[in-house]
Amino acid sequence: MFRTSDAFRVEHIALCGITATPPHREIHKTALGAEDSVAWSYHEDTAECLRALKGQGYKVFAVEQVDDSVKLGIRNEDLGIEGQPVAIVLGNEIEGVQESLLPLCDGCLEIPQYGTKHSLNVSCAAAIVIWELFKELRIEN
Question: What's the alpha-carbon Rg for the chain, to the nearest Å?
Fold first, then answer.
């Protein structure tokens, strides 16, 4: 996620809960130094982190498959994010975003999937969502 975030100028990664944080051998191996070019912070309590982001004016979206999720690449005009900072919440690779966090979000984004499996690993999902948001926000230079 650090390299993808660097590639598309993500301003900050908030790492929450049980996750590795830099400096960490595995992160360094895959990030290839991007952990030094993208600001990051660690938050033990994800709900507290989301409340803080919302208090700073962020529109917060969980990446989760729920009944009213916005399917990326299909109905992006429904996001209403132009000119507003955006934060995405990615969950555990097995269990997804904790259900208790969903009410703290402004909505849910879903990656349409047409195969027999309906899940992606977190770094792959992050890359797809970051790319879609990058296109939506039309970030230049």
Answer: 15
C-alpha–C-alpha distance, residues 39 and 87, integer Å: 14
Give the separation between CA 79 and CA 134, rounded to whole angstroms: 13
135 membership: H or E segment, kind and range: helix 122-137
By CB neighbour count within 10 A (0-12 exposed, 13-18 middle, 19+ buried), where does 139 fall?
A: exposed
* CA–CA gap between residue 78 and residue 7 (Å, rounded): 25
List per-block mean pLDDT (blocks of 10 residues) for the chain, which spans 141 residues.
90 85 64 72 95 96 92 69 88 88 95 89 93 78 46
Give the pair of three-digit tokens for residue 120.
Answer: 């992606």
Q: Please, which residues have CB within 8 angstroms of residue 19's CB and are 6 or more apart in sequence?
A: none
